[in-house]
């Protein structure tokens, strides 16, 4: 008699026990599914996937009666059936029933093979599984620590970008005011080219007086802060190497934080007093020119006034009122050419304003960029380069930049979807499309290019590891259980 036929008779007797007080047991079925194999009152059983009914004895009879193969879980008769491996001590699983009794051990407990003896390897596989799980979770943990550090550094870079944006915005506001004043001045000069220079000079001097008072108030506020800081330092020095030093130091730090939080309001821009001084000297020159009888006398007056201008300006700089960064604009061509000078200043202001507005737009776009889960990493990762030699080529991946194969551009960053970065519009292939690349990033403890594959002509698939791709959701819990009645399918 054929060996498999002998097995069938033994299997039929052992796997089908009539429903008496004894517990039903069917080969290839988990205990949780045994209730699906109860016969009806006539002793017949209905296929799980259809209305066909068969005798209970036809289950596991090595003949496929049900279209879904549910009547042959413990034989290889049905190509679409499934066999349950209990795998005590490891993880229960299902295998295709056509692999039952094929003399290859698929279940670690050997329950799928009755024709050959299979060694029970469930304990060893459980130990290997535990080690693999522990290694995986440790990698995720280490990667998350690095990622958290990157997130913190990225947050600082974002603060710096926001601070720079605010600074540029403030400069734009101040420059717009300066531009408006210059426009008004140009308009007034054009409308009253023959206006009384003495009247204009009087207004200039009044402006300078107001500017000086504002600057003195501002200087006094800074002096008060300086005095407060000196007092704090004196107190710290007196308490040094005493029992009260730490308390005094903490109190001093708190006091300084309070002082620092009280921002000194800038009352007047240095550029304004510079322009007011320049305007006053120009109008003095105009008066001198209007009243001078001889050309030589006018030149002497203009030189003397120019010396006065620089002496006043130097004194204001030494006194700390006027910024030394104010350009040392010459007073040549003042007087009758004052309108041209103001117009030139206006043109320069318009150019500077345009440049600042471009910078502001770029900073705003950077602050508003979104990168699908990497928003809190973007600023730190941008420009970070990873490279590896694969075959005859050196591949370089620049996060949010480009991808290179030696010196050949494989594409520039265009979009991100989860942990996948897309690079397009690279160097054109000969007789083909523009090169492009997709970078698939998985969790790792360092940036590393794992593999490079040209999936299609000039389309590259690059696998990487990086802490950037790590997340708490990647931690895995053990599938090992005390009991195996409710298995997870592998």
UniProtKB/TrEMBL annotation:
N-terminal signal peptide: 1-22
One GO BP annotation of this record: N-glycan processing
Keyword set includes Disulfide bond: yes
Coiled coil (UniProt feature): 119-239, 339-373
Annotated ranges, domain MRH: 365-472
Sequence intervals crossing the membrane: none
Protein name (database record): Glucosidase 2 subunit beta
Species name: Schizosaccharomyces osmophilus
Gene name for this UniProt entry: gbs1
